[in-house]
């Protein structure tokens, strides 16, 4: 009888503790997502959620080449950002896992330091560095590399990729670091005893076993960058317009919420496809390891 009471009390306590999270998830996240999906199949008649549903927004998105072009550009830029972030994050994570030693806490502090500042401030900082009269141009002129400032650093996709890769680097470093830390040292010792070189140990042991962290970090970087609109608007210029900029414009200047919601739903479908591909790759790597 007492054991039943303890179990009942424990279940009630767990239910009470999980209730705030459940309310936030269903009341804010899922409910808001449902509103966006419903709104995507409405027309811009001012009534928003009252009236008949329509496929006109989706038909326009998938039939107009402009939106396909912007979506492909968003995928291309986000893919480059993800690749650049993972490539630069892996050596940092490897150093943290195998070489940092007593300095690990300091390096982790430096890695997470960007989280202490606003995302907008970091974007503004890169704009100051890359601007026509910015830090980089001034340094080039001071070193005598060229005589006049260049406009090649700003208002192009490269500026967007560099800024986003810097902003989301910690999101890739930490998952890879965690994956590297889970590798048993005995495997590396056994490889060394069997005559494997450091390059062979990395290629046959470290890299395959760390791939779940690499794939997780890549996904964490890819998902938010494909919908980013602040960085392309401030650093990219017209040639770097991404799908997030179109969504923001529909909800803002155009005041066409249904079409903006339809663009958001189309973007979510693309992200779901990317997540499914990453999950498939994760299963394949998991079976190999």
TrEMBL record:
Primary location recorded for the protein, binned into one broad class: membrane
Gene Ontology biological-process entries: transmembrane transport
InterPro entries: MetI-like, MetI-like_sf
Domain (ABC transmembrane type-1) ranges: 71-278
One of the record's GO cellular component terms: plasma membrane
Membrane-protein topology: Multi-pass membrane protein
The keyword Cell membrane is annotated on this UniProt entry: yes
Compartment(s) where it occurs, according to its Swiss-Prot or TrEMBL record: Cell membrane
Spans through the membrane: 21-41, 75-97, 103-121, 158-180, 205-226, 259-278
Entries under SUPFAM superfamilies matching the protein: MetI-like
Gene3D superfamilies found in the cross-reference section: MetI-like
Pfam families: BPD_transp_1 (PF00528)
This protein's UniProt keywords: Cell membrane, Membrane, Transmembrane, Transmembrane helix, Transport
Family according to the record: Belongs to the binding-protein-dependent transport system permease family. CysTW subfamily.
Protein name: ABC transporter permease subunit
Organism from which the protein derives: Thalassovita mangrovi
